[in-house]
Amino acid sequence: MVRHNNMIPNGHYHKKWQTHTRTWFDQPMKKVRRKFLRAKKLANSVPKPIQLFRPTVSCPSVRYHSKLRKGRGFTLRELKQAGINKKYARTIGIAVDHRRRNRCVESVVRNVQRLKEYQERLILMPVKETQVVKLDSGKDLNKVKVRESKMKVRKVSEEEKKFEAYVTLRKARCDAKYAGVRIKRKLPKGENLDVSKSCN
Predict the structure, then answer these.
(1) CA 112, CA 80: separation in Å to the nearest integer?
(2) Please, which residues have CB within 8 angstroms of residue 149's CB and are 6 or more apart in sequence?
(3) Alpha carbon of 78 to those of 4, 48, 141: distances in Å?
(4) pLDDT digits over 100-118, tens only?
(5) Which secondary structure element, helix H or strand E, spans residue 179, and what is its range?
């Protein structure tokens, strides 16, 4: 509201809204057209794989780092160890990511093994081949295998049931905090405490 005894604003600013409105009546037909073009592109690319072959990477954060998922593409180091050129890899359906870096040897070994298995099952067609041939390259390698847990299931012992972790941690923290004070109390009066010896 306005202050004091002034006129209440009553402006009309939407008189010519029709000139600024854009219609979208062709949206349903464009959706059908895109679907038709995708099917046409897929038919022309046979027998090329529909999806790119991607590596397996560990999920981020401490909570999910034990799980594996599909990554964006293979690193240049992984392609080099597998003996595949980075430009040639893109032509045979292998995804390449030049930004990703290998942080551990385990991921390199795992993805190089995936590339070698992919090469063994890969069936290359001649470039000038016009006849479409149905081919089966075996099992789907693009699926991510579930990482097996290294921990073995066992029964909890009676000693472990009686063990109080919280109390043990609190006691150890308290002992470390008051270690110097307790040593000083045991010393005779007039004798100073050597801090370097007490810490060691």
Answers:
(1) 9
(2) 66
(3) 75, 23, 17
(4) 999 999 999 999 999 999 9
(5) helix 179-186
